[in-house]
Design goal:
single chain; about 425 residues; Aspartate Aminotransferase, domain 1; Aspartate Aminotransferase, domain 2; 2 domains; seven-stranded mixed sheet; 14 helices; about 15% strand; globular; pyridoxal phosphate; PyrdxlP-dep_Trfase; Cys_dSase_SufS; Aminotrans_V_dom; EC 2.8.1.7
Length: about 425
Amino acid sequence: MSSIATETNLDIQKIRADFPILSQKVNGKPLVYFDNAATTQKPKQVINAITQYYEGYNANIHRGLHSLAEKATTAFEATRTTFQQFINAAESEEVIFTKGTTDSINLVATAYGRKFIQPGDEILVSGMEHHSNIVPWQMLCEEKGAILKVIPVHKDGAISIDEVKELITEKTKMVSVVFASNSLGTVNPVKEIAQLAHQAGAVMMIDGAQAASHCKVDVQDLDCDFFATSGHKMYGPTGSGILYGKRAILEKMNPYQGGGEMIKDVSFKKTTYNDIPYKFEAGTPNIADIVALKAAVEYINALGKENIVRHENEITAHAHKRLAEVPGINFYGTTENKVSVVSFTLDNVHPYDAGMMLDAKGIAVRTGHHCTQPLMDHFGIEGTIRASFSVYNTKEEIDFLAESLKDIVSKFS
């Protein structure tokens, strides 16, 4: 937890009031939601934006000339501009709307990979990747006769830039690395990796699913060629996300899917494709949730990402301190540069048992391999208990988690 700061100016109780779901009880206990790495809860500003769309201007976009269609199109494209500013893309046309990070990575693996990856080429990922940043590349390698190489993960959950240097060769054509690990919280040196990739003539993709609401994201400064993230992990709706790509690369790529919107002209002899970003947005999109995604970005901006990160760093540091008191606890992902994720196991207690017993107390955590089975295999474990925190979590909730874990451990001793 780098740069642990003093208490923020955020009014956490006021923020909690923005999230209706947090006021409920689970199993008769107040909900303690520590599964934010899987999905964050949604503030009423986002929920209201969805309702306002369906109640006020539900219409299909881009092709209609009537008033509702024009209003829906304006709102939809406003999200594109807002996201462009949020990640500092050079232009809004470099922001493509997708269903989320998984969809975005598959788009790149298909639309870029099938065209440019050749037999014998190498694709480099890290050992801490989510399955969404492994399987699409495996599928591409099988199809094209390419080779998947893996950056090893050290005991503290970090990777070494020196090992990245050794693994990138003249055969490397694509490097795709997670910005922040969903299982460990580790923040990777993606800017430095992008530099190494480009020196070798390779293309760099960043899986930013866990980073968008926790880390500074400036795609021009990072100099990545692609950046993907999901709305639902940054207080936005499920089924919404973006793919950023540099214009020069996007224009060379084939479309991902065929259909309406992605065309300029269609005949039975030949179809000409639309300009970016529409070339990659076939069919009627998830309009309501994309519109509401703008409200999620605005919510983060209103709180200030620096304030959010400072608060999350404080409670993550507090979590490490308090959970260290639990007998038989083993932490995974202990590097200092990390986001608000704490993964651990308990001696003699299966993660699933611990998860169910915590749920009985109203505490929601994630248990299992977290869609990172190769990483769990690397550590020689079936899975972990993962507590992941957001801006609305408190130290008091963490104290309750620590005491609850002590109680669970006592039952198995």
